[in-house]
User: Fold this.
Amino acid sequence: MHDSHKTRRPKADAPKGFRDYFGADVTERKAMLDRIAEVYDRHGFDALETSGVETVEALGKFLPDVDRPNAGVFAWQEEAVPGGGSGDWLALRYDLTAPLARVAAQFRNDLPSPYRRYAMGPVWRNEKPGPGRFRQFYQCDADTVGSASPAADAEIIAMLADALEAAGIPRGDYLVRVNSRKVLNGVLEAAGVAADQSDAVLRTIDKFDKVGVDGVRALLTAGRRDESGAEIEGVGLSDVGAAPILAFLTSRGGDNAATLGNLRAAVGTSDAGAEGVAELAQIADMLAALGMGPDRVVIDPSIVRGLGYYTGAVFEAELTFEVLDEKGRKRQFGSVAGGGRYDGLVERFTGQKVPATGVSIGVDRLLAALRAKGRVGGQAGAGPVVVTVMDRDRMADYLAMAAELHAAGIRAEAYLGNPKNFGNQLKYADKRGSPVAVIQGADEAARGVVQLKDLALGARLAAEVSHDEWKAQPAQVEAPRADLVAGVRAILAREAQRAQS
Amino acid sequence: MHDSHKTRRPKADAPKGFRDYFGADVTERKAMLDRIAEVYDRHGFDALETSGVETVEALGKFLPDVDRPNAGVFAWQEEAVPGGGSGDWLALRYDLTAPLARVAAQFRNDLPSPYRRYAMGPVWRNEKPGPGRFRQFYQCDADTVGSASPAADAEIIAMLADALEAAGIPRGDYLVRVNSRKVLNGVLEAAGVAADQSDAVLRTIDKFDKVGVDGVRALLTAGRRDESGAEIEGVGLSDVGAAPILAFLTSRGGDNAATLGNLRAAVGTSDAGAEGVAELAQIADMLAALGMGPDRVVIDPSIVRGLGYYTGAVFEAELTFEVLDEKGRKRQFGSVAGGGRYDGLVERFTGQKVPATGVSIGVDRLLAALRAKGRVGGQAGAGPVVVTVMDRDRMADYLAMAAELHAAGIRAEAYLGNPKNFGNQLKYADKRGSPVAVIQGADEAARGVVQLKDLALGARLAAEVSHDEWKAQPAQVEAPRADLVAGVRAILAREAQRAQS
Assistant:
């Protein structure tokens, strides 16, 4: 065949770093988000949905480098068309906080103040894709804009604990750890850390979980040799300068009161530090009044949170149970949510300070945790009842059977493939996880009956019994056509009971 | 003040053509989509969520013009970075069908066949924004890929009717009209329309609703003068050539059988036309077996549907009730959903024909219709109970009151703004649509009571009674602190009862 005119076919691939979610991946995430939204709503937070696209200018963070404004974000320039495109640079949002800051500024005269809002939806990051790292993922945020009160932080922290429990993480399996960026700044002040060193110090502190006290001490001063033998340069503080920072990191005491006492010592004479400790003390009191005991929330100075924009309380929720990693080693599941106070984001637009605080839940990680604990998924009978097609001229009858099952609230469908090979229909039902196949050939139609095949029971019998026994097909029963719904219900009920027992 | 160093502030605006959805805008849409998803699920359709970003190559349609591949879509080129960006052109999806075709091709060996899926989510169009026209909006689709059977079309059409009713459109307020692109092709064949004229003929037929039989006759032949007096060029068919097309358009009879009879005559000797009529007849039979009477679905040849990719049955759901337009004139609400059979979309990728059929619901239009009919929104008491702050040192107590209400399932929040001015707190509660304000000053705290202010009743009294009567504040009751939840519940119940009566 001469194929020089054959047109090149497009590749059927999602772009690199993007993925598709099928069936339960979608519905289980949705069910989890619904439960979290209910908690947010009950706390007086209103839903907000901004669009996926913002101006690069409003998103901020990426402005300076005009030649390459899309580092980290997906960005493009609109064509400048009279009456149409503005020539603006547009970008996909990289989180839900930047759009909230824009909304809080744009609608500042219309929104209630304080404004409590929650938002759930996809965000996009133009990062190098990797295993398990995707360029579109879900976030689920709640924020209070316009309140400087530590009560706003305490409320968000308590609500996070409630949300995790509503999602299916029982008390005892998570811990929210709370710290204060102000306290940290006070400690840096007390330690005499120069402004140009503070970023390096923050990055070092963030490694505390990994390298411990001695590791951080070395990294803050002269440096250390890592496991591979490589020399890691230190920040260059003196031992005396590093001491307050180490005191800070290790200041978690037996209870919040002890921790707060240690922090008061660690910030020395720094006013910012004293203010931060006082705020943490208020937050601790309010959390106690809300019934948030140390099994749920603790003050823990070793939490830093990477983002530069935090200005007060910061917190992180960790799951404390162990899971097996890809190499079969036990490890703690780790962080699934975090947040804190950011008083500068709205000011970018308005020039006026607008205090704000909020939390972001990592939706995919939390869902993975619920799956790891067997708390979602695996529902038996999630597949539809399949009405098979024995006689293609009677499609209307088969569709009507499915419709009868729908009207009874039962998930069901008629087989719509080529009905010639009945074995293919049963294979299809198997692939769909179908609990029951309905069969009606000419003989059954004449007698006014249907065959109901319990596919789950059939599969178990096929696995457990001999071929002869299986051939006896005890998993198949005949029912009058008029009893279609009742017969299917009986099988579904039996299987549901079996799944519970 | 010297302000030469003042940095330029970013504009706090959503990009042109994009909008934000607040509160009930989000939750009412979500509730509607949840009801529709339940119908889709019950019919055996599985959820699918693809990402917002696809390769321009996979999306198709926009390929030829390489210099400007983003006409109609938002597109950008990835940087070609070793191990990172591919240099591909990426774009935001403009509908949910193109990504489905890509998924059906990419996962053809894993997906059940036929594959029934539903999808809900935002799509993006790079169009000139206008009043009420946005560049991001929701679609809500269901499609069956891999079945050529008219039963698949009938199932989708019946499911659309069920979905509209589940969303809140009662029977009698909508009508699904069904036609066939194959029948239309048969008519064009019978009419001897040249291939290069068929697009112009399709566009003309699409105007039938507006210009009527005589208008279409004129436009198909020599042209006509429109209302403004401008000459509109005709397609140039002869009267004899236009006759079968006019016969087709006006072939809707008193019932489906009569319509099908007229269509048989209209397609003359065209094989494609005869096949189309036979398929429509099967669809009509199956819809009848599904109990879809002429109050819900009819065969109506005047439905064409613009999209070029349809290859068989096409259909459209219209809302038949009248609403007032922006000028106060009565008009029918019009189309809220449409779809049809498209057998070519997956073939683009695989080279093999994969028959498919589906429906897309215009989410924003359907929601607007429900609002116009008063079937969503306006729930009294959707705002939270506001626990006011009389004594800022007792924030922990106020937070605890809100938490008690949360635990009882009542939407509530403590006031987090500056509590100095109590009037501002009540204004805030008013803005939030709060049903009840909880008040506890030092006096009440000492006596172990709370004041509960019925804000809805208070507002009615303020509107209806004299200032002196209002000052008597019958809308405020005192309750023991221990009865906080019971007292709030009593007021909410009274208001709920009032809203119903």
